[in-house]
Amino acid sequence: MAEEQAAAQEQASQQQFVTQRIYTKDISFESPATPNVFRQEWKPNVNVDLNTKSSRLDEEGNHEVVLTLTITAKLEEQTAFLVEVQQAAIFFVSGIEDEALRQLLSTVAPTILFPYAREAIDSLVVRGGFPALMIAPVNFDALYRQAVAQQAADEAGAAPEGATH
User: Fold this and answer.
1) How many CB atoms are located within 10 Å of the residue 55 CB?
2) What is the largest CA-CA distance in the chain?
3) Residue 104 gets which letter from DSSP?
């Protein structure tokens, strides 16, 4: 029992996840209906699209994670504004592989990036002349579990008839 605990502690001490740099990769703000949109009652339909992607940068363990948030605010069918922010970071990861690495880059990394993206979006919206926009927090763990379950369901549905797993 003590040997197992020592081995687990040694493995944990060799695992590293370090934020190297956080940066804005791309940012845009469009308000095609101004100034007429300011003359209407402000009750927009706001749509939030979220996407993450990660890529290995080198063999030393550096990975880039990009969180993309696209916000579209419409008054009826008219676009009041469209904001897109790609918030990114370089993370150094050591001693974590395969599924644990995918989960880390899909959950912890976007959780770190989200407040930066949310602040950038709010700032752009306010500078565009609109009321502040506070995007609700996102549970990246739940999104990851949902994506894994959907992928498993898709793979199960794609299996040829009569095939077993």
Assistant:
1) 10
2) 71
3) H
Nearest Cα residue to 63 out of 42, 43, 93, 98: 93
- pLDDT tens digits, residue range 135-159? 999 999 999 999 889 988 888 876 5
Handedness of CA 67, 156, 98, 146 (dihedral sign): positive
Domain ranges of the chain: 16-155
- Distance in angstroms (rounded) separating the CA atoms of residues 124 and 80: 13
What is the distance in angstroms between the CA of the first residue and the CA of the last residue of the chain?
35
Tell which residue, 128, 107, 39, has the closest CA to residue 75. 39
Q: Global pTM?
A: 0.83
CATH class belonging to 16-155:
alpha beta
* E-state strands within 76-107: 78-94
Q: Residue 83's CB: how many other CB atoms inside 10 A?
A: 24
Question: H/E element holding 72?
Answer: strand 62-75
Residue 82 CA neighbour count, 13 Å, CB half: 5
How far apart, in whole angstroms, are the C-alpha atoms of residue 152 and residue 92? 29
